[in-house]
Amino acid sequence: MPEFKIKHITKYTYESPVRESVNHIILYPIEDQFQSVIKHTLKISGNPKVDVFTDYYGNKIGFFAYSERHRELEIYSELTVATIAKELPSETMFSEMQWMELEKLRYQVPYIDYLKWEAFNELDELKKITEQFLQSDLTPYRVAMDYCQYVYGHFKYIQGVTTVQTQIDEIWQIKSGVCQDFAHILCQMLRMAKIPAKYVSGYICPNKNGIRGEGATHAWVEAYIPDYGWLGLDPTNNCIANETYVRLALGRSFTDCSPVKGVYKGPSNHKLTVQVIIGYDNGTSDTQEPFAEENDLIAVSVIPTQGNSYRRNLELMQQIQQQQQQQ
């Protein structure tokens, strides 16, 4: 049972003092039979009170407000997580029976959101590619693996060509991006084949094996396989996401899983740096140098607001929700 020590440091630096910073964080690892949190420490500039709740997708969410004027905001998360390897699907059911089982999930509430795909200009082209893998007598597990390999082989891993706001149409056109883009394309293919698919965010901890995304935040996919459950697939590396992957959150897309998002009152120019340090039970560690990263932090104009601080914070969070709906 591997054990990982992870430090995730997020730092915002503003060009001049800001105020009324209201933030929404997903830095609490998922806890289930395959992953357990041994220790978790969270430190935030100004020591604000963090209210925690569970969202619709089962993610643990933190919410805090930092009202004092400040030029920096640092969120420091340090945790120790243990994971357990999950056995691979045995494929004891006939292929036809498995596809019939998937057909029954179309109107079941736990799966509906994970079966909706996005419409975009080149949808017909993707449909043809997706259907090519369905013409043989392959099981959903084999089809999911083939889709994963397709994304890995046909998309280039290039940092900086996309952002968290990049739409699937552009990703498909340039056939390039980073882990979140690979995950979005794979989710789209699986859902079009009527295989429920979750977008997953977290960390990959392979102990310096040269794998894409190590020592940083990462994104991959979970596909639902009949008579098995959710299977982790990493299209960025064309592998199964198992015990070296630490899950933070899951949802329909990046929007549901962003580690940090928020709004503040002040100038729009700010700098974000993120650093992830992963330690292993053998004493070694991977350190990712601080790097600038796209984010969901929104600047709003300074407008006098009537009412108490709770009301002001609520209005700011409503702006976050409106921004999500527009994406």
Number of extended strands: 17
**DSSP helix count?**
8
Strand content: 35-45%
CATH structural class of the largest domain: Mainly Beta
How much is the average pLDDT? 85
Radius of gyration: 20 Å
Report the uncertain regions.
288-316, 323-327
Tally of discrete structural domains: 2
Encode the helix/strand succession as letters.
EEEEEHHHHEHEHEEEEEHEEEEEH
What is the helical fraction, as a range of percent? 25-40%
* Named CATH topology of the largest domain: Immunoglobulin-like
Shape: globular
Largest sheet: 10 strands, mixed
Q: Specify the CATH architecture of the largest domain.
A: Sandwich
Q: Termini, distance in Å?
A: 39 Å
SS-based structural class? alpha+beta
Kindly summarize this structure in a few lines.
The chain has 327 residues and is of the alpha+beta class.
Question: What distinguishing features does this structure have?
Answer:
327 residues; alpha+beta; Immunoglobulin-like; C8orf32 fold; 2 domains; five-stranded antiparallel sheet; globular
Give an account of the 3D structure:
- This is Transglutaminase family protein.
- It holds the Pfam family Transglut_core.
- The chain is α+β, with helices and mostly antiparallel strands.
- The chain has 2 domains: 151 residues, Sandwich (Immunoglobulin-like); 148 residues, C8orf32 fold (Roll), CATH 3.10.620.30.
- Helices cover 25% and strands 37% of the residues.
- It is built from 8 helices and 17 strands.
- Strands 1, 2, 3, 4, 5, 13, 14, 15, 16 and 17 form a 10-stranded mixed β-sheet that branches.
- Helix 4 packs antiparallel against helix 6.
- It is globular.
